[in-house]
Amino acid sequence: MLRDVSLIEPSPQEKVLRNPFFASTPLSRRQFLMQAGGGFGAVACAAVSAADEARTVEGNAARQHFVPRAKQVIYLFMHGGPSHVDLYDPKPALVKYAGQPLPESFGPVMTRRKVAANPLLASVKPFRRRGQSGIEISDFLPHIAECVDDLCFLRGCHGDSVNHPQAVYQTNTGSIQMGRPSLGSWVSYGLGTENRDLPAFVVMLEQGAGIKGGPPAWGSGFLPATYQGTTMRPGAAPILHLDRPAGMSADQQRRLLDFVNVRNQEHLSARGADSELSARIDAYELAFRMQQAAPAVVDLSQETAATRAMYGMDEPATAEFGTRCLLARRMIEQGVRFVQLFSGDTNGWDAHNDVLSNHTQYCRATDLPVAGLLRDLKQRGLLDETLVIWGGEFGRMPMSEQGGGRDHNPWGYTVWMAGGGVKAGFVHGATDDVGLRAAEGKVHVHDLHATILHLLGMNHKRLTFLHNGRDERLTDVAGQVVSEILA
């Protein structure tokens, strides 16, 4: 039972409030939270993690249904829709029939801009066989091509929406509608984190206006708010408003936080179950611990020159994404369960009018860092327990648009995985002769999600959450594990 501090000697928490730091004009509750915690009120909306009991592996052991092949995930999300037929899915027929209309035998084609009648566009760069596996990869990606024998390609992926926001939502949450829990939230709900001082689910965005669809892509939906993704960034301030206020000691802040928690618990007790308030209470505690842990994780000064060069941090074109890839490795080393990096701001890989120019820019920025991440994980013995995923919300059409571009194509595209229990140097599935639709070894988004959860030791049909009287799950009423890719 919480004590009534108004009837006894003033508590240490109340004495803190009599400090001259609080001697200014009266504050509203929101102003108090924002100022008193150095921005903890703002951090609470983003720096969220499960409660202590649920944020450890032991606390969530009941949700792990069998021995996992992977312990953590790094999801490299290429926002905008990278072109599979220009990167990972060679189509000789596109070269042979370039400039000609799509044959009628392919049937009607759904596109956003009615470009089905436009001529076929050949792959804009040549493909070559790589590594011992002989898998073909485009010249757009010379560094990833050197890692081909560690990669597992799913060339028959498909989804349900031709529009960016809905496709981003489906790829990340399983539904084209906003408001469902994200994949990272389900993973953190199921497994928690191995580090009490860091979130279970971290998101790192490209600097700029953000992705189409925005924060719901890494939100917790109807899961408790404490499982949504925490956005972090490189540099001295990985999370905004995390610094301690000037003139306040760590001891003072600890006593202040204790006081705030007492009051919040009283408020929560009076209101009953409240996911948002519970998440805020958890976030205060996490933010306090993160003041020490987060800056250390993003401090790259101890990394060797060779490691930094491996990620491309010494080259202007690759430094930004390379830094985030290196941070991803450091985070999973510290027990973060799910790290998601987004490449491409606003439009990103959305090559409607010039695939060559667009993909040259984005492949240049990401190719070396991604290869560096794979090599670094492998040489540190982390790749076997880390599932690395590369993909976007859809691919691109084989027909041209605006001359040298391509429209959205959710009907057939490529995603690759590495490490974490998948076959290496392996190709599963295929699109048709021109890369228009998945034709063999089809993998729907639900199948992809079911497989990711399986690799983490969770049965997608049993990882559920009761919502509005229904046991909800990431894969809804669909999804099959792609057993053919399991090592």
Characterization of this structure:
The chain is of the alpha/beta class and 487 residues long. It has one domain (67-234, 300-485): Alkaline Phosphatase, subunit A, CATH 3.40.720.10. It is built from 14 helices and 17 strands. The chain has helices spanning 12-17, 29-36, 40-46, 84-87, 92-96, 142-145, 164-173, 183-191, 250-271, 275-297, 305-310, 316-333, 355-379, 445-455; strands at 72-78, 127-130, 135-138, 151-158, 201-204, 230-231, 338-343, 386-391, 395-396, 408-409, 413-418, 426-428, 430-431, 438-440, 443-444, 465-467, 470-472. Strands 1, 4, 5, 6, 7, 8, 11, 12 and 15 form a nine-stranded mixed β-sheet that branches. Helix 3 crosses helix 10 (275-297) and helix 9 (250-271) runs antiparallel to helix 10. The longest helix has 25 residues, at 355-379. The radius of gyration is 24 Å and the shape is globular. The model is unreliable at 1-61 (pLDDT under 50).
Topology, element by element:
Elements: H1 12-17, H2 29-36, H3 40-46, E1 72-78, H4 84-87, H5 92-96, E2 127-130, E3 135-138, H6 142-145, E4 151-158, H7 164-173, H8 183-191, E5 201-204, E6 230-231, H9 250-271, H10 275-297, H11 305-310, H12 316-333, E7 338-343, H13 355-379, E8 386-391, E9 395-396, E10 408-409, E11 413-418, E12 426-428, E13 430-431, E14 438-440, E15 443-444, H14 445-455, E16 465-467, E17 470-472
Parallel strand pairs: 1-7, 1-8, 4-12, 4-15, 5-6, 5-7
Antiparallel strand pairs: 2-3, 4-11, 8-11, 9-10, 13-14, 16-17
